[in-house]
Every structure is written in C-alpha cells, then in structure tokens.
Amino acid sequence: MAKVEITESLLDQINKKFKQESLEVLNHLKSLESSPHKGKLLGTVGALVIKELKYSGFRFYFITDGFKLKCLEEEKLIDLLLRFVRMSDKNHQQQTINEIKQVLRTMGAGGFK
C-alpha cells in the first residue's frame, strides 16, 4: 500500500475552496493508497513523475518515483510516496504544470511545502 502525503499549502487551499466537501475531496485523494496507478501521466522530471487526479472540474497534481510506479507490482508498492503538491481548474492547468516542473528542476521534490 502506497503512502499519500498532501502538502500543507494544498490542504489549506482545499479547505478554503471546498469547505464542507473537503473531507470527500481528501478521501478521493487518499484512494490512491489502495490503487496508486490511478491518474493521468503528465510528464517526468528526472526520475520523478507528475500525474493528475480529477475531481469535480478541478485537477490535483502529485509527484512520485516513476521507476517504482512502473516496475513494481501493486503488492510491493509499500514504500511508494505519492505527494500532492498543487491543484488547479481547467483554465490554469498548463500554467500549474509548468510551475511544478520548474520547482522540480530547480529545487527537487523538497521544494514543495
């Protein structure tokens, strides 16, 4: 089972945007623990993979280790970390993806807080 981590800034943004529905959104994001292969592949930066998960017109972006996700079977994905870093609507999708790639290139995965 993979581990899902949500950055504090994204958690605050979800709570402000969805209010009462935020628990449902968080449960949707946490569903990746049981099925880590969900989500659409958007690109890679080094060994990290950027994927998106959709919910009600919004896109939630997460990064993970591409090698482990591709090569290991689902039962062996115990130490896989899926870190949700940003969210956007359809209008700002490409801008957000480019921002994530830029942060990964300059500071690495530790650049998200």
**What order do the strands of the largest sheet run in, or round the barrel if closed?**
1-5-4-3-2
Overall structural class, as computed from helix and strand content, comes to alpha+beta
> Termini, distance in Å?
24 Å
Describe the largest sheet: 5 strands, mixed
Which residues form runs of ≥5 with pLDDT under 50?
A: none
User: Number of DSSP strands?
Assistant: 5
List the helices and strands and how they pair.
Elements: E1 3-6, H1 8-18, H2 22-30, E2 40-45, E3 48-55, E4 58-65, H3 66-71, E5 81-89, H4 93-107
Parallel strand pairs: 1-5
Antiparallel strand pairs: 2-3, 3-4, 4-5
Structure description:
The protein is α+β, with helices and mostly antiparallel strands and 113 residues long. It has a single domain (3-111), classed as YaeB-like fold (2-Layer Sandwich), CATH 3.30.2310. 36% of the residues lie in helices and 31% in strands. It has helices at residues 8-18, 22-30, 66-71, 93-107; strands at 3-6, 40-45, 48-55, 58-65, 81-89. It has a five-stranded mixed beta sheet. The longest helix is centred in the last third of the chain and has 15 residues, at 93-107.
Summary, kept brief:
The protein has 4 helices and 5 strands, in the order βααβββαβα.
Task: Provide the descriptors you would attach to this structure in a database record.
113 residues; YaeB-like fold; 5-stranded mixed beta sheet
